[in-house]
Amino acid sequence: MRTKQIETDSWFLNRMIWSIVVLILGIVSCKNDNLSSIPEGVPFDPSKPVVVSDFTPKSGGMGQRLIIYGKNFGNDPKNVAVFIGGKKAVVINALGESLYCLVPKQAFKGDIEVRVGGETRPIIGKAEANFDYHRKLVVSTLAGYRNARGDEPWKDGKFKDADQNQMASGFWLSSFMKFDPLNPKHLWVTFDDNNGLYLVNFEDSTITKKRSDFSRPRSVDFSLDGNYMIVAQDRGGENDESTLLFSRARNFLDKEVLTRSKQCNGASVHPVNGEMYFNSYAKGEFYRFDLNQYFTDKTTKAEFLYVIQDPEWEYRALIHPSGNYAYILVINQGYIMRADYNWEKKRFNQPYLVCGKVRESGYKDGVGSSARVNQPYQGVFVKNETYVEAGKPDQYDFYFTDLMNHAIRVLTPEGAVTTFAGRGSSSLNANPYGYVNGDLREEARFDRPSGIAYNEKEGAFYIGDRENRRIRKIALEEMDENNQD
What we know:
By secondary structure, the chain is mostly beta strands. The protein has three helices and 38 strands. The strands form nine sheets. A five-stranded antiparallel β-sheet has the order 35-11-38-37-36, with no helix packed on it. Strand 13 (175-180) and strand 14 form a beta hairpin. It is elongated, with a radius of gyration of 27 Å.
């Protein structure tokens, strides 16, 4: 009995060692095009069957490194094709009785098939068990395109269509996004220096311009009951219209002026008490507006609270769902502040720095002032289920677009900043920007992402990708391959 146990342990140990060797060889082969320098396995014998006896790991997602064991795989990876769930995998190396490959995207069925001997008359071996494929979060494209000339017009249209002329296009300015609180199928978007209010309609897969009478619209928000929309404008005069109110009852086609001030970068409504907060870029001023009082007697007087650092600080406040605090994104100075809410006085206290460093933009994941950001533009609070399970008092992470870093970053309640998506495909070139769909970090690239919105029910992010002139999406892989790209 003891001897049998030793033999079993020895077999298991040898197999583990072999797996590690194969993995190392595979990694080496990725870095060295001269595959002949790697020790070769037994050549393929077309007179014998191809056998698939096992594979490891048993589960994973797109890009997972997979080792397949069996017989008669040969020693030429170019002569081997692996299909997982009907999708062709990238074969890295073949060593006779094992091969190393990468799991392809959308391999949902999980059945494994190894074909050796060329495309015309291959010898085929199949695994008895299926690979347990896990869908991954990936970056894809919802709408928009760039033509060869780079002169696609701003126009209404469909998300996708065989005829490019029927597709919505434009989107080459910095955007701000907000889902309609009473209709999660409606995403409202404004673009800086574009005069329009746009509706991304998921009910009919179209994008349409609903208004065209704005001057530098910078943000969209809604009243507590969702019956009114508020749009902030960035205009140059002291008496110019800075925040505007539109009613759902009139399909947001009417207009009331809430405030008049110079160069407003954004306006946000407190999610519990309902008052509105907005800023002035010219003097760095931060204001409170009693929206509830306005609905009662049309009072339009705003209350000055304090100055954020210095004049000409471009910033916007985005409020936590609990109302306990707001993050203040200082776009043109490369840092993020936090202002805690005084529930007794119903206003935000003076803010303090939570990440980045004043006037020191850059790119670096880190905690607090050790992190670096470069034009944090818009963000959304997303509930983290691990925080919920742990019983943490703050259950939300903050996902924000880092415009000049071409990335989507995450800020935790503890002040840690990490990169969530973008800056991938390093093998293409040294640039962090570009247009690539796929794995969040390994493949995906953005080019100056600005607006961002999150659909909690769908678990999906939508991003205004400015220089790519598209609206991108981050969600689990689509089951329908036609929707992936």
